[in-house]
Amino acid sequence: MALSRQNQSFRIPCQQCPLREITHLRDFTADELEFVSRFKKGELVVEAGSTILVEGAHSAHLFTMLSGWAFRYKTLEDGRRQILNYLMPGDLVGLQGSIMGEMQHSVEALSPVILCVFERERLLTLYNLHPSLAFDITWIAAQEERILDEHLLSIGRRNALERAAYLIAFIFERGRRLELFDERRFIPLTQQHIADTLGLSIVHTNKTLKKLSSKGLLRWQERGCEILDPEGLLEVAGWTGLGEGKRPFV
Amino acid sequence: MALSRQNQSFRIPCQQCPLREITHLRDFTADELEFVSRFKKGELVVEAGSTILVEGAHSAHLFTMLSGWAFRYKTLEDGRRQILNYLMPGDLVGLQGSIMGEMQHSVEALSPVILCVFERERLLTLYNLHPSLAFDITWIAAQEERILDEHLLSIGRRNALERAAYLIAFIFERGRRLELFDERRFIPLTQQHIADTLGLSIVHTNKTLKKLSSKGLLRWQERGCEILDPEGLLEVAGWTGLGEGKRPFV
DNA sequence: CGCTTAGTTGAGTTCGTTCAACGACTGTGG
DNA sequence: CCACAGTCGTTGAACGAACTCAACTAAGCG
Questions:
Q1: For the domain B2-132, what is the CATH code?
Q2: What CATH architecture does domain A158-237 belong to?
Q3: Which of A147, A159, B75, B79 is most enclosed, with most CB atoms within 10 A?
Q4: Size of interface A-B (CB pairs under 8 A)
């Protein structure tokens, strides 16, 4: 289903992978690079708004985001949606499904996205032959866990204004490290996405974002927001930001 | 600090580990068992209410719950607390810290707890020598991620009654698989714990639990709750329960 | 041109909070 | 033995944050 959207098969060799240029990401050893380049099966190009993985599916593939923005979400039967996290270059997509079988969340593209495709079964080979990469994958899973911990704290215990400030600051911080922004510092989201991430209604999200705008912390544009004052957002959120240090990718 | 509470050093050999008797947990191969038993450094016995790990600490240890109940939580500076998840026998404690350095949440015992102690540095050895165990650890991390996804959906999108029903059903389901219950089916928690997990005030939590009681789904006892109707709780929550299948432990 | 999607704003309602008081029980020290 | 403080659970009343409903702009697209 997702793969039917694969309209191109340009295949950037891992040696020239753009992710290796990002200083925030930890580069491979020669050995690892050699293995990963054989591990990579192809690329998947997906347009904005399309679904990359669906809850309930058993995907034969595991992906790494090469470029673009996406998000993971779950829904209740009556349609209420909760966005769990956003996906950016270097993030693994579909790890849960690869390890445990069925996907329990869906993934949708926010912008045009390019994914690097791996075959799920070969993950065992990776664990057998490359303990350092296996450790990296666990690192990535543990990092995701941390982020979810932080989101839970936010949704459970911060009020609407703090929550919104935290979310925007969080996304901005991640994007900044990945060198995704130009001077405009623009995050491509609708207010509906924000609402579904914060666990608020759109109406109240709109009013909350207005408050942040009126404090000069951000500016809402068509389909996205421009960050004006990252430190101000951190302060409103009562959040210290992500820790420093490089992160691995595969 | 936590280790100063180690008042006993009984050391159950891994060969006779009680967790191996639990049918829901996947047993080791002879080879793995041999390695794990050398990996184990000792045991830590902790009394109810004491802190096992503190946010901000760099623990030299990694633990597995052998018996008892505990929980993970984070707090904001002003003291607001969010409980992230509950820990039961077979769960890894402190994996995030072991892999990424600093702990970003705290862990506290709800009942007397016995932990199996491993040394953090030896985790790399495990990855090098036992890919199957390394994979299991990733499995466990991915499982935790799933649970957090589900909690996020719950806190973000379910109302108080649904949320409470989901939480109780979730804890009950996990405990049942681990054979923790006698006929009383008693979960040892205060309403404050429930409130801090649901992201609600104690007062409203109390009123919500009363509603569940009046529907005959549970009964509140001193410092805990007795499950009367697990299916009824699932129904109120609009939740299908945890999937079936064994899970690994280390 | 109508249709759809995204964002905005106001009014009234509901869900959950805060404040406050009280009962039951436990443990402690005099 | 009683007095006292501390924790846990319970309940009522008033308040407020966030929700729903509804109406309305503005932009984009066939």
A1: 2.60.120.10
A2: Orthogonal Bundle (1.10)
A3: A147
A4: 140
Q: B104 and A74 in contact by Cβ < 8 A?
A: no
| Residue B215 contacts strand D, CB under 7 A | no
Q: Please tell me chain A's helix, strand, coil percentages from 3-state DSSP, rounded to the nearest 5.
A: 45, 20, 35
Domain borders along chain B are 2-132, 150-237
Would the CB atoms of A131 and B131 count as touching at under 8 Å?
yes
Is the C-beta of residue A81 closer than 7 Å to nucleic acid chain D?
no
Subunit contact A134:B131, Cβ cutoff 8 A: yes
A101-150 pLDDT, tens per residue? Answer: 999 999 999 999 999 999 999 999 999 999 999 999 999 999 999 999 99
Dist. CA B26–CA B37, nearest whole Å: 16
Is residue A159's beta carbon less than 7 angstroms from any atom in nucleic acid strand D?
yes
Query: B150-237 has which CATH code?
Result: 1.10.10.10
- What is the CATH topology of the domain spanning A3-131? Jelly Rolls (2.60.120)
Q: What percent of chain B has pLDDT over 70?
A: 96
Q: What are the structure tokens assigned to A132, written together?
A: 């350092």
